Amino acid sequence: MERTILRKRDISGQTVDIRIRETSPGSYALQLYVDGYYVPGPSRPLPLDPPQGASTHYLGGGYGDKEVVGITDAETTLILRSLERVERDSGPLLSQQRRALEARRKDLMEEYNRLLRRRDAEHQAALEAGRDDAEQVRQAYEARLAAAQQAIREFDREHPDVAETLLGDQGEGG
Length: 174
Hints:
By secondary structure, this protein is an alpha+beta fold. The chain has 4 helices and 7 strands; from the N terminus they run βββββββαααα. It folds into 2 domains: about 1-90, no CATH class; about 90-174. It has helices spanning about 75-130, 135-140, 140-160, 160-174; strands at about 1-10, 15-25, 25-35, 35-40, 45-50, 55-60, 70. A hairpin with a 2-residue loop joins strand 2 and strand 3 (about 25-35). The mean pLDDT is about 85.
């Protein structure tokens, strides 16, 4: 996601765009563009000391060879409020996505456990019935169990933070 939150002309007539850009899910940073070119610098407005005219804060500055764009107190407030709003509004969406991932991981585990219980029950029934194929009944589940384990491993590889949280919760909760 990238959105322009402030566009203005500076005192030299250059077009200044201040944008909010999502750097990773739920994490945002300000980016400064002058006449369409990205100018590196701080991710939040920094105070000018001393203020210069109406400018109380600045963005840009990068490596010392780029323009420093002055912004007023009102512009600083607008920028910070916009950034806070985006960060706040992304929270519920991230929580919803996280809950969906956690539910998917739990479903994968439940499917694996269901297969184990079913295999063990059928194997036990075959043993109790005195069937000669009891071990074959047990082995018939091995490919499905291996596939279920592989699905869990792939999920955990793609979402290690979800797996870590769920496994940690199981360890603490019993």
